[in-house]
Design brief:
Strand content: 15-25%
Oligomer: single chain
Radius of gyration: 19 Å
Number of helices: 7
Largest sheet: 8 strands, mixed
Bound molecules: iron/sulfur cluster
Helix content: 25-40%
Distance between the termini: 37 Å
Number of strands: 10
């Protein structure tokens, strides 16, 4: 196993989310624009394998993974140590990585199951959720949320539902991806054979049990943003979730803010992101948040001639 590689001179910043933090292998700290502060990430996919292959994915899969498997005991010990250091007077706040944070950013907003793939594909999902919640609450972070950042493909599985039910009781939030309104666009952006109808059904059933945060990334592909019709279909998909009795806390509309997998991908303008967020608010009555990016075309991490 090679040593984790935290970028030299790294300071927490919103446009860089390296998974490497100190000497940790599974637990990292980032400044998250969507969390509005520090998020302690838990990487359940250190092998960098995902069941999607999104054309905007920001995971750098060129480098060989440092770890193939999650070491449960090691992960828990890293989480304990990291949270100890991030208590209000914890020593980690004085380390150089946190030097540029403002006073109001010096708080752990959440611990997030995220990382280099789809967290629900981790086979001991409920076990790890249980352990991490115990550590978080035991160290006095009851106020911090437990966030699952998911592409929604595993939300219908019984073993995952057990973990979600536990999260519900401990300030949990599910941030579920919906990047399209039509099956064709879903295939283009998320680059997967997973049926779009099944994804929508997962979102709908899950939202009937607890409120979801929907996360939607829109972008230009070969210079073209999503069409008016695509956005109308996307808004309609959200309406359908609500019409089935699903609850949605808010919709986060964003564009690429860090280098994406393919160089044909670039950011939408701020005005375009805002226009999509306005369409969602007008069409659903939901609260929305917009997050911007300034990534030009040509910055692909994994260019392989996809998205034709
Ligand atoms: S679901 Fe997330 S981790 Fe997986 S390919 Fe898409 S953006 Fe990357």
């Amino acid at each position: 196993m090679s040593e984790p590689v935290q970028p030299e001179g790294y300071r927490l910043r919103e446009d860089q989310h390296p998974r490497a933090f100190k000497q940790n292998r599974f637990v990292y700290a980032v400044l998250s624009r969507r969390s509005h502060g520090v998020s302690v990430g838990i990487n359940l996919n250190p092998d960098k394998v995902c069941n999607f292959d999104c054309i905007y994915c920001q995971v750098d899969r060129r480098a060989k993974p440092q770890d193939e498997f999650v070491d449960m005991a090691g992960l828990q010990s890293e989480l304990r140590e990291t949270l100890e250091g991030l208590k209000p007077n914890g020593a980690l706040w004085n380390s150089p990585e946190f030097a540029t944070l403002s006073a109001d950013q010096r708080i752990v907003r959440d611990i997030a199951f995220s990382g280099d793939g789809e967290p629900t594909t981790y086979r001991n999902f409920t076990e790890i959720v249980t352990a991490c919640i115990e550590i978080k609450e035991g160290l006095g972070f009851a106020e911090a949320k437990v966030v699952l950042i998911t592409n929604a493909t595993g939300l219908e599985r019984a073993d995952v539902e057990r973990g979600l039910a536990l999260m519900d009781k401990h300030n949990g939030e599910i941030w579920a991806k919906l990047d399209a309104g039509t099956s064709d666009y879903f295939k283009l952006i998320d680059n997967t054979d997973f049926p779009f109808a099944r994804l929508l059904s997962n979102l709908s059933h899950c939202a009937q049990k607890r409120p979801l945060v929907i996360q939607s990334c829109f972008m230009r592909v070969r210079g073209e943003g999503p069409s008016v019709e695509e956005i109308a279909a996307y808004v309609q998909r959200i309406r359908e979730i609500l019409n089935c009795g699903g609850r949605i806390l808010r919709v986060q509309v964003y564009t690429v803010a860090r280098d994406p997998a393919l160089s044909v991908v670039s950011s939408l303008s701020d005005a375009e992101v805002e226009a999509i967020a306005r369409s969602v608010a007008a069409g659903t009555g939901l609260s929305t948040e917009a997050f911007y990016g300034k990534v030009p075309a040509g910055r692909g991490l994994m260019d392989a001639g996809k998205a034709n």
